[in-house]
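*** Fold description ***
***
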Amino acid sequence: MSLAVQKALVLAVTALFLGGCNPFSSAGPMMDEYVKRVARVLELNPELSELPSASTLPRRRDRQLTVPELEMGMLDFLSLYGCELQYVVGEKNSVMGRVMQPLNRLRYELRFIRAGEECLPEVTREGVKESLEEAIASKKETLPMVLWNATWGVEEMESLFTLAQGDYPVAAEGNPVSDLAIDANRLKRLTRQLLNGDLSPSLESVGAIQQRWQAEHRAGQLINSARLLAARLEDASALLEQRIEGRPLCLGGQSNNQSDIVQNMFFSVYIERIQPYVSNIIRARNQLIGPLSDLAAMQEEVMPAAFRQWYRYHLDEQAEASLWFRLDQAIARHTRLWQTLLEQCGLRPGA
């Protein structure tokens, strides 16, 4: 092995070792280190609390709704010969049609309604027209249930919300949720149209959206990071509060050596490291979790009970018992306590 190759290997191993020792390279070690540094500069003992709970999506069988099947007699089916609806119903009655995936089921229901409405003027046989009108009305009535299954009832949604892929990255390139956010808003608009009775939107893009869900895990990562940030900011806030209520950091508003150390840590760690990550999580929350929460909320009328509790905690930012509400409160409290502590020394940020 040449000397140049040996040097390259040493540099590579050294870089790997140093990277592995850098607590700010990933979210968990970074937030733990932050609490420890706050404790150190305040001359207190750090305590790391348990992370808030979180759970995966409810099981698919608990998320999916049972949609009533429409029974059409063979005589009625044959009497529709010549209409597009005949072929639509024929596809559903095939072997493949009986085991439709949720998205294909939604496609079928929309095709049935459209074909049925186009066929109505051609139906003249007594009783058949009334039966077809009843069938179309029944399909429209159950469409929200089919739509729910095609959004929240699909397997791909489980990949998007898995908690097994760690935290949201600390130093991600670009915007990791950009495409997912565009998808979520597109699906939200499509869902609103369908629920409002506009059955014209194409479902062509939905398959690609769900494929992206299968490959991405950002929603689950955001939930993991929200848990982490809420816990560690609360831990650090407890230390700040303890020092504020105890021995003053400064007397008479005059800075000292310790306050200089605290201020330096505040800027070099909190402002430069922690705050940007918090901002990234909130921005990604607004871009991705927000429209997904809206997507669930607009379908609340058919939302399964097993899903409702999960939704309130993991998605609903306004619910006081939700994870996101807790994070918002933790951020606000932490900011306020830092301002109060530094104000003792005439160092209040922004003053």
Observations:
- DSSP finds 14 helices and no strands in the chain.
- The CA atoms of residues 78 and 86 lie 8 Å apart.
